[in-house]
C-alpha cells in the first residue's frame, strides 16, 4: 500500500465523480433550489435529515440557511431534525429508531414546507419514513441520493426533486452532496435576494 498513491486515487475519483455529476445534475439542482426558494418565499421552512455523514450534511445546510451562506441577508427558517438528543433518544426508546425523523416531521411540518432528505443509498428506513410523513403533511421533498436511489427513488412524487449522484461509493456520493448543498444555498440566495 502506497499511501501517497491512495490519496491521489481518492482525489482522482472525487474529481471524476464531480465531473459526471456536473454533466448530469445541473438542471435538477436548479429545480431543487427553485422548489426550496418558492417555499421560503411563501413562509415555508426546510426540515433536514440524514444519518452519519448525511446528518452532518443536514446540519450544514440548515446552519447556512439559519445564519448565512456567502451573502449578507436575514436568516432563513430551517430545522435539522438530527440535533436534539432528548427528542431523538426518546422517540427511539419509546417507539423505534426508524421513527426519529418522521415523528418530528409530523410535529413540525406544515403544508408547503420542504423536507431535505439525505441518504447515499436511499435506503435508510428513518429517512424513508420521514419522506412518507412529509407527504402526509403535504410537504415537498428534495432528496439527495446516490447509487440506484434505493427505496427513496420510487417515493419521489410530483413536485418533489431527487438529486441522485451517479456513483456507488458512499464517500464519493457524500462529497458531491456537499457541493450540491452549496449550490442550493447559493441559488436560494440568488432567487430570494438578487432576482433579475
Ligand atoms: O459518513 C459515512 C461514510 O462516509 C457514514 O457515517 C455514513 O453516513 C453512515 O454509515 C450512514 O448510516 C449511511 O446511511 P445512508 O447514506 O445509506 O443513508
Ligand atoms: Zn463520510
UniProtKB/TrEMBL annotation:
GO cellular component: cytoplasm
GO biological process, one term: carbohydrate metabolic process
Binding locations of substrate: 51-53, 64, 93-94, 119-121, 124, 174
Pathway, per record: Carbohydrate biosynthesis; D-glycero-D-manno-heptose 7-phosphate biosynthesis; D-glycero-alpha-D-manno-heptose 7-phosphate and D-glycero-beta-D-manno-heptose 7-phosphate from sedoheptulose 7-phosphate: step 1/1
Catalysed reactions, semicolon-separated: 2 D-sedoheptulose 7-phosphate = D-glycero-alpha-D-manno-heptose 7-phosphate + D-glycero-beta-D-manno-heptose 7-phosphate
E.C. number(s) listed in UniProt: 5.3.1.28
SUPFAM superfamilies: SIS domain
Primary site of residence: cytoplasm
Annotated Zn(2+) binding sites: 60, 64, 174, 182
UniProt cross-references to Pfam families, sorted A to Z: SIS_2 (PF13580)
Residue intervals of the SIS domain: 36-196
Cofactor annotation: Zn(2+)
Gene Ontology MF: a single term: carbohydrate derivative binding
Protein location: Cytoplasm
Co-factor note (free text): Binds 1 zinc ion per subunit.
InterPro entries: GmhA/DiaA, Phosphoheptose_Isoase, SIS_dom, SIS_dom_sf, SIS_GmhA/DiaA_subfam
Family per similarity comment: Belongs to the SIS family. GmhA subfamily.
PANTHER family reported in the protein's UniProt record: DNAA INITIATOR-ASSOCIATING PROTEIN DIAA (PTHR30390:SF6), SEDOHEPTULOSE 7-PHOSPHATE ISOMERASE / DNAA INITIATOR-ASSOCIATING FACTOR FOR REPLICATION INITIATION (PTHR30390)
Miscellaneous comment in the UniProt entry for this protein: The reaction produces a racemic mixture of D-glycero-alpha-D-manno-heptose 7-phosphate and D-glycero-beta-D-manno-heptose 7-phosphate.
Function description: Catalyzes the isomerization of sedoheptulose 7-phosphate in D-glycero-D-manno-heptose 7-phosphate.
Subunit structure: Homotetramer.
Designated name of the protein: Phosphoheptose isomerase
Native source species: Alkalilimnicola ehrlichii
Gene (name only): gmhA
